[in-house]
Amino acid sequence: MASENPAKKLKMDSPLIGTHSGHFHADEALAVSMLRLLPTYANSPLVRTRDPEILKTCHTVVDVGAVYDENARHFDHHQREFNTTFPGHSTKLSSAGLVYMHFGKDIISSVTNLQPGADLDILYEKIYTDFIEAFDANDNGVNAFDPKAVEAAGLTKKFEDRGFSIASVVNRYNYSNSKAQDENKTKDQLQQEEDARFARASSFVGEQFVIELTDRASAWLPARNAVKLAYEGRLQYDPKGRILVLPDGMPWADHLYTLEKETAIPQGVEPQVLYVLFPETTEPDSKWRIRAVSKENGGFQNRKDLPDPWKGVRDEQLSEVSGVPGGVFVHAAGFIGGNKTFDGALAMAQKACEF
């Protein structure tokens, strides 16, 4: 972490990144970590300051300076007139969204080796939607649901979840372990420790971004074609199209919801899949899972639970109550179950459809 000494910064070969000092947030922590995924910034030092003269020495500035100018590489969103959003979205960008909008495709290529084309474009949109936009919303005070509508509906939280987010984790890095010891430290020492905490926070949030990106590139993206083929062949397992059979475990939910929205449904076929079947492993004698499809992506309500009498039941007792040999288990919440064979899992799904 660079100190706030302009003379030292001018000697550094890699482009200097600047952001503000003081209390830090998830958006600039992510913005800095994303920049460093590019070869240009891989070894870039960082200066954290609010001094305009020092910021002038920086190659790229994020989340400070009240200027958004792509050509000058200034990416702040705090100015009154700022209202930029990611294409196709309505959430005002933070420094994370700005950096991602301008550098995202290059970052994806750098991390995954994906070349420009349809797959990169799909992944660029997906990562913004599923990961980056929440950072933008959090920093700009945008709620996932309209608070007035929630209040009017009389809805209340079942539990407190403020501490259960990346933003809350980043916020914890703001605080020193011992305020009593801080009283005996110089201003420079306190700044160095604050910078070190920011570095750890930025590393943490950057790691989450890379995990999200690499998983989407290596598993989610290739699953698109496999889910499409399974969707097109679903009528062989149920004439109403309520059962989807996959060749192995994969990220299927996003692709299924998209296919259901975009595909013309033949007469006599149900518009929604109720259950998805997949093997536990790639071994020939693998057990099979049956998964109830959620009403919404990521939600805990299912379109149709596995039957109530099966819930929380295992092994021989499950085989007896379901009437299907080879029962392994059904979760007490009714969202997933298992059978020793594909034929058994299929029979369970077919019975569940009619239950």
Automatic annotation (TrEMBL):
<dbReference type="Pfam" id="PF03690">
    <property type="entry name" value="MYG1_exonuc"/>
</dbReference>
<dbReference type="InterPro" id="IPR003226">
    <property type="entry name" value="MYG1_exonuclease"/>
</dbReference>
<comment type="similarity">
    <text>Belongs to the MYG1 family.</text>
</comment>
<protein>
    <recommendedName>
        <fullName>Metal-dependent protein hydrolase</fullName>
    </recommendedName>
</protein>
<dbReference type="GO" id="GO:0005634">
    <property type="term" value="C:nucleus"/>
</dbReference>
<dbReference type="GO" id="GO:0005737">
    <property type="term" value="C:cytoplasm"/>
</dbReference>
